[in-house]
């Protein structure tokens, strides 16, 4: 049985928790691109509160497969995203150790969104000690699905009481003295704050 996930840009912690505990997780590269989802956004915690990092794309037409969505470099979004990450996590326990693993994603100019997100996911899974192969299969050829998280793990769903990860176990965050614990953030927040304890945290969710 397979578990379907959407492509995601530095996905939220619940995405990685579900992925690590899923049976044969895979991404469908032919699914239709959807706006305002984790496919093109990551949420981090800055000194001013939650900060959404949004990846610009070249106005895909309706029903465009995710694999065909192209990135837009009309604005210096890579530099802006990296500056936001450094400002938010420079004082976190594991930033200095992990920054070199992530900085290359803000230097390389990818053509397609899916390629950027796939490389990010592979790096994150590697840091979490994930041993499985990253699978990419079209939904139409999957023999059976156990779960489909493509639309369920979504910013709009996180506010619902029936969201499976509505109550997230707290962990120490850089700005918790100002905001308390903030859930549903990008896995970057977890990695920079918990380091090698991140995988155990995700498996406990």
Written description of the protein model:
The chain has 205 residues and is α/β, with parallel strands linked by helices. It has one domain (2-204). 31% of the residues lie in helices and 12% in strands. The chain contains 7 helices and 6 strands, in the order E-H-E-E-E-H-H-H-E-E-H-H-H. The protein has a 4-stranded parallel sheet with strand order 5-2-1-6, with helices on one face. The protein has a two-stranded antiparallel ribbon with strand order 3-4. Strand 1 (2-5), helix 1 (13-21) and strand 2 (25-27) form a beta-alpha-beta unit. It is globular.
Question: Which helices and strands appear, and what pairs or packs with what?
Answer:
Layout: E1 2-5, H1 13-21, E2 25-27, E3 41-46, E4 49-54, H2 77-89, H3 95-102, H4 113-127, E5 135-136, E6 145-148, H5 176-179, H6 187-194, H7 198-204
Parallel strand pairs: 1-2, 1-6, 2-5
Antiparallel strand pairs: 3-4
Helix pairs in contact: 1-7
Number of domains: 1
Quick one: how many beta strands? Answer: 6
Sheet with most strands: strand arrangement: 5-2-1-6
Count of helical regions: 7
Measured between the Cα atoms of the first and last residue, the distance is 22 Å
Helix fraction? Answer: 25-40%
Give the overall average pLDDT. Answer: 91
- Alpha-beta classification: alpha/beta
In terms of DSSP E residues, the strand content is: 5-15%
Q: Give the uncertain stretches in residue-range form.
A: none
Largest sheet: 4 strands, parallel
Radius of gyration: 16 Å
Shape from CA axes?
globular
Order of helices and strands: EHEEEHHHEEHHH
